[in-house]
Amino acid sequence: MAGYFLRRVLGIVPTLLGVSLLAFGLLNVLPSDPVLTWSEAGAPMSAEGMERLRRELETDRTIAARYGDWLLHAAQLDFGRSLRDSRPVLELVGEALPWTLLLNLSAVLAIYGLALPLGWAGSRRPGGVPDRAARCLLIVAYVVPPFAAALLLQRLFSVRLRILPLQGVTGGEAAGGAREAIDLALHLVLPTLCLALSGWAFAAHFARATFRTLLDAGHLAAARSRGLAGLRLAWHFAPNAAAPFVSLLGAIVPGLLAGSVVVEEIFSWPGMGRLLLRSVDGRDYPVVLALLLFSAAAVLLGQLLIDLIYPALDPRLRDVIGSEASVRG
Amino acid sequence: MDHGRPRRAAAFLCLPLAALLWGCRPAGERPAVPAGPGVKAAVPARTGGRFVFPLPIEPATLNFVSGTDIASAVVLRVIGEPLVDHDVRLKTTPCLASSWDLSGDGRVLTFHLREGVRFHDGAPFTSDDVLFTYERIVDPKSRAVGRADGFQTVERVEALDPGTVRVVYREPYAPALRSWEVPILPAHLYRGADFATAKQNRAPVGTGPFRFVSWEPGQQIVVEANPGYWGGVPSIDTFVFRVMPAPETNLPALLAGEIDFARLSPTQWEARRHDPEFQRRFRDVGYVPLYFNFIVWRGDGSNPFFTDPRVRRAMTLALDREGYVRSVLKGLGRVTASPFQDLLPLDAAHEPSAESKDPAGTSAADLPEHQGRGARPLAHDPALAGRLLDEAGWRIDPRSGLRTRAGRQFRFTLLIYSSGENHVQFAQVAQDDLRRLGIRMSIERLDWQTLWSRLKSGSFQAALSGMIPAPDPDSIYGLLHSSQIQGGQNYASYRDAETDAWLDAGRRTVDAVVREGLYRRVEERLVDQQPYTFLFNPAVPAVLNARFEGIEPSPLGLLGSSPGAAGLRLRREPR
Amino acid sequence: MADHSRPALKPALAVLGTLTALGLMGPFLANDKPLLVSDEAGRLSFPAAAGFPVVEALFGGPGEDSGRSAEPPPAGSWVLWPPVRYSYRGVALQEALLSPSSRHLMGTDALGRDILARVLNGASISLLVGFGATLVSLALGGLLGGAAGLRGGLSDLLLGRIIEVLGCFPPFLLAMALVAVSGGAGLPAVTLAIGIGRTAAAARFVRGEVLRFRGGVAWSAARSTGSSLPGILLRHILPLIAPPLLVQTVFGMAQAILLESGLSFLGVGLQPPIPSWGMVLAEGRATLEAAWWPILFPSLALALTLGSLAWAAERGTTERHP
């Protein structure tokens, strides 16, 4: 078991290498001119001035040499400096990472927070009215694309009702402490909602199946006969529930990371997704590479999480997780 | 098995705790800047207050010389100061140079520096700083692309004494004064440090009315009033520049009181301008920016369509520019007849023209405008366009409905910049206009880098782009001079010997009347040849929180000219 | 194990069939040119075909237009018009941003184009891209995954790595980069890009199924007949995995349509004025303040389409797990 685990973790390295290779290749095929990172689109510039700048910036090295150089530094965790403002890439990523983490964490909490109770209720009374209503609602949440939902929600809550802020992370008043925390929480609501939408249906579906498996009639009766009831009953089964729900995490995290990009764009959330879009547009390849590596590592770890617990899952759950994991990409 | 419980409880507490901790984090960088002694002029009582201004993008750097993107420029205007500046009418005004002289032959410019000016850290401002700034600008390592162009004809810059700087040009250079509108660097802080990574690039020090306080990356930059400012302490205490990239979110933030200024889209403006509550809370500070859109027709023979000036003229006639300004921009904007529209007349040569006909019928009469006499835009006339095309040999083939000449159908692709809101929309309008004339235009949306590489290599038939000229007619040089075809901005490959001569002469002529005459001739030739179809200049509807007064917008924005933020103050009487 | 019973397929097939029909019908329902014109001599012509967005998407530029459809039909001939007589591209600046009314059931957008026409025509584009991309991903993924699963050993290791690398790339970014690299124009580029972006998911699925098959009894039976590996893939594996493959297709199509509309929303891929739903939504974003109809209707269209696909996929999986 430990050997398999170790092999899998080591196996991440060649994959990351492959990702960096592919990304580097793509970025170099895209048309780009280093002069543009330093000049303003639409401002008058002379041909001579641009040529001077180009000579200053261009390094006359082959793509392979540049990649090799980048790789050497990356292996020592030095991801270079941004081409746009010369700041260390790790610094830029370090600024954006907490925001993305915050958004995704609250989305995960939102997903679990809704899916678990719904799944529980559904498993206790399958086919009942609340179960079917919930499943219907979840399908709706699943099919509305995040950007469409974002626009509709923005229109409803920010423009019409004016109870939630439209974008950004703060209102600007450096009030400190509790007021700032509440302000941040308000700004989190809409983006979290949009990000969590697509995860809900699957998570609730999975939770329902998990609870039904764990709580089949035999086990439940046995536990009840030992005098367990209510919350203590729930805690009794909790450890067994941990494994499937951890693997659920592995299934939804890649989807969240992908969805982050669009949600961050729409809500002006200063996270890694927005940084990525901006950097691709500006061909800021050190930043792009670092971000892609990070998200690839997160996706791979997520898959590892699933695969570790996969064999221990009930075959019925295995199929559910498996089908979702395979289609989520 | 139960030891999982306390760990789970801890996990549940994590997020709210994290959120609270987040609120208590230290904000950005705060350098300790002591207040300098400075000049204390007699000033009216200050009102204090805090003004929040939205930035559409985050500045890449706050280095005075290389920070030329729109956001950096806005922020740096309040922190650093140039030798000469401009007012809301774009007339040159003294700033760190209290006066200047130009020699008779136009080659020697001598600046007399203002006395008693100090940087935010107390160090005195002298000619040494001016010299240092010049050296950094022309050093290619500083990557000050746009600015360096204006200094290419400088032979040398000398500091005659701490209060005088002499600039010697190789030949007379008409836009010389404009080129010195660059904020002066504090030499003593940058010497010995690596220019590209010096910490002043993130925490700038200048001589301006506000001094830097903090920069929270991705969020905002805060500056506060400089108590030692030579022009008198500004009225406002704190200025906050908030990074707000999505333009449609400016209005809700304004309504919620999060920001004090907002640019609106024409639809937003139309929806609100008659609301009495809105009019009470906000003041109209809309303006017509220095900007124009244009379509480039590649006329160098690489395609059979656009070499004939009749065809290009027909294109201009066919596109319903007035209709677009009227319906989509709600009348807020002007059709552009020529790129010199806002750059001429030269104020040194005329009084501002009293009567100027505006063909596009701008309806918001209270928008300040920067009108000039000159070329009138060609009116939308599809019938005439059709006749010109027939004349040029492009006749409609009844079977296909397309204009054809010698077996070749009139089909071409227009490249556009995908993030240009008006660009994408106007391209679709143009497509429809041309379809009715029997011309097939397809649209190709590209990101900026890809568009630029296609423009540079000339591998296109037509492209839609825009330009933000500097307030001097010489900034159009790059668009029209034949030397700028290879690797420059003359995308149309426009080659006209007389235009070249006029442009070169215009650059060297210091006599304003002669100069204007030269550019007027370039303009006439341009209207005749139509290598570019100039489209329109969208006005920017904008509003200011009515609690503030003391500022007027200019074609360079609300804060784009002197005195700008320094003159801002809270309104005294209650409303 | 799983019970691949036939009833699970009916919802999936029904949904796919309906969507295909609707998608194909869209441009027939909303067009500013007549569907059928029969002139005096009884000859038929189909002017509407010139106004199909597919034509524009494939050939970059609207189809040929004789311009005669505006003339009144001469005696002895008849004309058949579509129910919604607006095209998806006809700019009418004087009718900009009208709210829904009897003349424009879904209102108009900022350039005066009828939104119902744009949504109906957009259906054909979104569905075409979705279907095409899914086919591409199944073909490529089937090849990669099948080869990896069948050959095993070093090939599996290598191909498995390739699949993993492709899978780690956010499909979004991969598609964006591929579109930009290919010059950015047209339907084939976008379809291919999205297809490649989804290949990893398909490959993983096929590989998993192939491995499962190899662990079973049928494998040795098939091997003993002496057939080659590709033969086994086609003749034995394919029929067995057809039902879950169909469900996977349905699911994948939903993801592909979602991906395409996301790309259009961000301004990448299909060129204006092609009314992909994502593009119509993006245009509606600029007038969010003033008008709700440009964002509501394309959202509904997307939701209905994705919803029926997701429902069919869910029926396909849950039928197996009572």
In short:
Chain A has twelve helices and no strands.
What does this molecule look like?
- The complex is a heterotrimer of chains A (329), B (575) and C (322).
- Chain A is an all-alpha fold and 329 residues long.
- Chain A contains 12 helices and no strands.
- With 575 residues, chain B is of the alpha+beta class.
- Helix content of chain B is 28%, strand content 20%.
- Chain B has 17 helices and 25 strands.
- The model of chain B is unreliable at 1-43 and 351-373 (pLDDT under 50).
- Chain C is elongated, with a radius of gyration of 23 Å.
- Chains in contact: A-B, A-C, B-C.
- Chains A and B meet through helix 2, helix 4, helix 7 and helix 9 of A and helix 1, helix 4, strand 10, helix 7 and helix 14 of B.
Please name the defining characteristics of this protein.
heterotrimer, B: 575 residues, alpha+beta, four-stranded mixed sheet, 25 strands, disordered N terminus, C: 322 residues, mainly alpha, MetI-like fold, three-stranded antiparallel sheet, 11 helices, 3 strands, elongated
- The CATH superfamily title of the domain at 118-316 in chain C: MetI-like
How many beta-strand elements of chain C?
A: 3
If classified by CATH, what would the architecture of chain A be? Orthogonal Bundle
Number of helices of chain C: 11
Label the structural class of chain C: mainly alpha
What gross morphology of chain A would you assign? globular
Give the CATH level 1 class of the domain at 118-316 in chain C.
Mainly Alpha
Order of helices and strands of chain C: HEEHEHHHHHHHHH
DSSP strand count of chain A: 0
Largest beta-sheet details of chain A: none
Give the proportion of residues in helices of chain C.
55-70%
Strand content of chain C: under 5%
Radius of gyration of chain C: 23 Å
Separate helix tally of chain A: 12
> Based on the structure given, which CATH architecture of the domain at 118-316 in chain C is correct?
Orthogonal Bundle
β-strand percent of chain A reads under 5%
